[in-house]
């Protein structure tokens, strides 16, 4: 047997797979190669002598070896699984072949091919296919993959749903019928056919092409060539249903360009129309007029009658405006109760005629749900080319003119005035500079002494704000305070004045000078809900007794909302703060109001003081104010006293106090203290006109 074993050993070494020889009588391994040792994890010496059924013990193998023991089994080939010495299962292809040796001895050649790598590759491929199919099915797009011959290689269910393809055409792989279905489904079948044929012959990609179906659906088509090993092998078609998106876009476009309530153009659309009209007018040297129409007191209709009635009024107004236009002119709704009218070929006279037509149309009696009332409107007009050469300028100028019409009493119209706009721009620059000044600590306070007319003592100080700007120079309070009131910035400025004045009064008190401090309060600042709390908080922070603070209020503050003002003033008076009326006689106060409020002092406005004692009318007014204050148990102080004659008259008339250049201008804090101490050292000095004014 040595010679056959040697020959078999040489043969098994060349097999390339695990192999061993089994002796047919005892079914024992008599020879094994190195690959068998590696596969089974056992040395060759251990394999030799082992029973054949011990190496691969599947039921199929056990049955074969039972037959082999009786001399019947010849061959066995199948895929199976073996367990190596570590118990690890391996997929293998096992082949058993009976071989005959000299002397009629039976032997069996067992070869085993390890299929682990092959199985892993197959599983990976199957997983990849499953992943790709899952990906196709999970996308919202319909996917179709075709080869160069026009046969379908892959698709997803979404593709069938989008195109409404019957299931049997795809399941039965009726490819030609599928493509015919697609062709019949599109609106332009001929264009679709040409496009498909061109793409099938092309290697270029197609992106975002729109396909419209007979059902009304709108599809977005994206198509890419498919390559394999660098060669074109087919094409991927992707279809996305954009029907809702297109319809939504159309709805959005309608909303973007049209007013939802009236159906008129909106601000954006009228601006585009105005741009186009201006371009045409420039080519033809034509003219245009833009009217901004704002309904007067429309908020009252919404507040009192409700928004549904308000909407009906707006619809009625829109119809009236359309009826007042010539053919070719345009009307748009550009705001809540604001409309724009574009009048072609209109000069100043034509624009005025159009404005008067609008005023007449709007002012006709209106009836909504049985309610009858009359509307009015305010109109601002801007002309091309005199008032601007672009839409933004014309709209801005017309709106500004409309606001001027409102301020003039409503129910009228105003043309654009360039100087007025220049004033507005100056206000804007001033507002910006004020905000920078507050942030950069450029404001300062000065203090004008308030003097007792009877003994010459300084009895108080009025804090006055001053501002020197590095670019604007010294800016008068008469210039920047109105601008601050218009913009609302007066609230921040007023709070700064309150804090600084209280802080200075507290410092004087700490230094031995207990001096009442007066500050002016704007209407907007006083109307803040937390104003009274803010005053008491500042007093507490600086530990200043409330009796040393006086708030000077204008008469308009008291009559704006008398009940609310009374509550706020009562809270301040209860806290100990003194209250005065500034510029008395120039507002709207009456005894009925004055006797209700806890006012301690009236300040006579400088406009009355400047002409006494030469003006009989001003003398009468001043005497009346002093007598009224006596009746109301209030002190009286006159401001703007500049001459000895004015001081003497006020003293003779019974006025209590005065302030003005006769005694001193507004002083910085240090000079104020020095002047107070000098006066205390010479209590009987006479009043003299200050030389340096």
List keywords for this structure.
25% strand; 47% helix; 28 helices; 8-stranded mixed beta barrel; disordered C terminus; alpha+beta; elongated; 693 residues; 26 strands; single chain
Give an account of the 3D structure:
By secondary structure, this protein is of the alpha+beta class. The strands form five sheets. An eight-stranded mixed beta barrel has the order 18-19-21-22-23-24-25-26, surrounded by six helices. The chain has a five-stranded antiparallel β-sheet with strand order 2-1-5-4-3. The C terminus is likely disordered. The termini are far apart. The relative contact order is 0.04. It is elongated. A hairpin with a 2-residue loop joins strand 9 and strand 10.
């Amino acid at each position: 047997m040595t010679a056959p074993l040697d020959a078999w050993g040489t043969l098994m070494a060349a097999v390339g797979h695990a192999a061993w020889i089994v002796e047919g009588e005892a079914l024992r391994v008599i020879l094994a190669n190195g690959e068998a040792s590696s596969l089974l994890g056992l040395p060759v010496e251990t394999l030799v002598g082992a029973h054949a059924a011990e190496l691969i013990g599947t039921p199929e193998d056990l049955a074969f070896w039972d037959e082999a023991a009786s001399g019947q089994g010849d061959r066995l080939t199948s895929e199976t699984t073996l367990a190596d010495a570590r118990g690890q299962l391996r997929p293998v292809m096992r082949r058993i072949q009976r071989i005959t040796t000299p002397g009629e001895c039976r032997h069996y050649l067992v070869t085993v091919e390890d299929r682990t790598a092959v199985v892993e590759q197959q599983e990976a491929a199957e997983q990849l296919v499953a992943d790709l199919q899952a990906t196709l099915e999970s996308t919202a797009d319909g996917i179709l993959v075709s080869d160069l011959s026009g046969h379908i290689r892959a698709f997803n269910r979404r593709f069938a749903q989008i195109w409404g393809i019957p299931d049997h055409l795809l399941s039965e792989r009726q490819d030609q019928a599928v493509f015919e279905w697609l062709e019949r489904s599109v609106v332009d079948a001929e264009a679709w056919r040409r496009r498909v044929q061109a793409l099938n012959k092309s290697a270029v990609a197609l992106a975002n092409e729109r396909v419209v179906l007979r059902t009304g659906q709108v599809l977005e088509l994206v198509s890419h060539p498919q390559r394999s090993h660098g060669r074109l092998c087919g094409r991927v078609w992707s279809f996305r249903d954009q029907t809702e998106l297109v319809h939504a876009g159309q709805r959005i476009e309608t909303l973007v360009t049209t007013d939802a309530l009236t159906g008129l153009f909106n601000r954006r659309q009228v601006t585009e129309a105005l741009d186009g009209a201006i371009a045409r007018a420039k080519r033809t040297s034509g003219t245009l007029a833009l009217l901004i129409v704002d309904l007067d007191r429309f908020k009252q209709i919404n507040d009192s009658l409700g928004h549904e009635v308000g909407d009906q009024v707006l619809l009625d107004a829109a119809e009236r405006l359309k009826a007042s236009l010539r053919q070719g002119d345009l009307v748009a709704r550009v705001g809540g109760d604001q409309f724009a009218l574009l009048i072609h070929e209109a000069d100043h006279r034509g624009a005025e005629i159009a404005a008067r037509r609008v005023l007449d149309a709007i002012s006709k009696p209106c009836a909504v749900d049985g309610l009858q009332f009359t509307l009015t409107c305010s109109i601002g007009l801007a002309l091309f080319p005199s008032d601007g050469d672009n839409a933004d300028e014309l709209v801005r100028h017309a709106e500004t003119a409309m606001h001027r019409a409102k301020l003039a009493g409503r129910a009228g119209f105003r043309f654009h005035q360039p100087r007025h706009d220049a004033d507005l721009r100056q206000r804007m620059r001033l507002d910006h500079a004020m905000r920078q000044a507050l942030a950069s600590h450029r404001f300062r306070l000065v203090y004008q002494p308030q003097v007792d007319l009877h003994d010459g003592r300084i009895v108080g100080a009025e804090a006055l704000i001053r501002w020197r700007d590095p670019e604007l120079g010294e800016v008068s309070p008469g210039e920047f305070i109105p601008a601050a009131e218009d913009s609302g910035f007066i609230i921040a400025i007023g709070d700064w004045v309150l804090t600084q004045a209280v802080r200075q009064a507290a410092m004087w008190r700490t230094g031995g000078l207990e001096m009442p401090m007066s500050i002016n309060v704007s209407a907007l600042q006083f109307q803040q809900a937390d104003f009274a709390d803010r005053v008491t908080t500042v007093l507490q922070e600086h530990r200043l007794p409330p009796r040393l603070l006086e708030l000077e209020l204008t008469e308009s503050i008291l009559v704006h909302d008398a009940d609310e003002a009374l509550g706020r003033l009562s809270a301040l008076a209860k806290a100990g703060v003194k209250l005065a009326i500034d510029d008395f006689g120039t507002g709207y106060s009456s005894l009925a109001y004055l006797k209700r409020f806890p006012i301690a002092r009236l300040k006579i406005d400088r406009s009355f003081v400047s002409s006494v004692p030469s003006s009989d009318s001003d003398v009468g007014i001043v005497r009346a104010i002093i007598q009224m204050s006596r009746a109301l148990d209030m002190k009286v102080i006159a401001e703007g006293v500049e001459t000895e004659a004015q001081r003497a008259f006020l003293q003779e008339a019974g006025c209590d106090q005065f302030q003005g250049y006769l005694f001193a201008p507004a002083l910085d804090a240090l000079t104020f203290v020095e002047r107070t101490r000098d006066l205390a050292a010479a209590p009987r000095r006479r009043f003299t006109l200050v030389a340096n004014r």
